[in-house]
Amino acid sequence: GIRGKAGQYIRFARLEPLPGCRWLHAEGETRPSDEGADRVREAAPAYNPMRVVVSFGPEHAPLEQRQVEHAWEEARTLVPRPNLLIFAAFQFDPEAAKDIDEMKPELAGMQFLKVQMNADLLTDDLKKKRASNESFWLIGQPDVEVRKTEDGKTYVVEVHGFDYFNTKTGQIESGGRDKIALWMLDTDYDGRCLYPRQVFFPMAGDDEGWARVKRSLKAEIDESLIEKYRGTVSLPFEAGKDRRIAIKVVDDRGIESLKVIEL
Known about the structure:
By secondary structure, this protein is of the alpha+beta class. 15% of the residues lie in helices and 33% in strands. Helix 1 (65-76) runs parallel beside helix 2.
């Protein structure tokens, strides 16, 4: 199965290779799962079996934007049409991740989900007994707000947390900010490379995050700035020449998500 938030799982009654498609590699059906938090009545949508198709990313490269487009095209030709289109990869190209996050079920005709594949799958000695060695993890969508400051010349970003797929209800629900281990802000994203101008450690203790960097570098770091870089609100910044920002958020499981926003 696929591990979600708070111990939830997407479980499969069956999952098998899908012949005749280039960009879709597996097809299956979910089964109800009571695992994890937020138990709901059995009349919830996710308690009905849902048809699932899976598109796996390359072994040694990120899953790219064109794969998202082609997989969706193939999924729309299937009868019956799938309820879930899952993209599973070791890495996601930023633009591909953005397309998956922004594609709503009302437009796509199905729910798009990102799944992080454990890099241990590339080895032969994966230890499956520990939760940290789960093979597949659901990736949340960053819940981010951008607003102008009072002077009207600069912007600030606030990270509210993640939007997660609730495996009990079949809906995307907002999560809290208490599970954000790290987030980075590129204030002038060029669409290719993420260059963090601001880096934050919201969960860091007094001896972690930037405090640990300070010890490692044996350098003086402004203590007031260390406190500011522990929060979920950025420092004010001006729009760059590309007028586009990128926010990468890493949760307490080490799962990364990216949000790209035009200013």
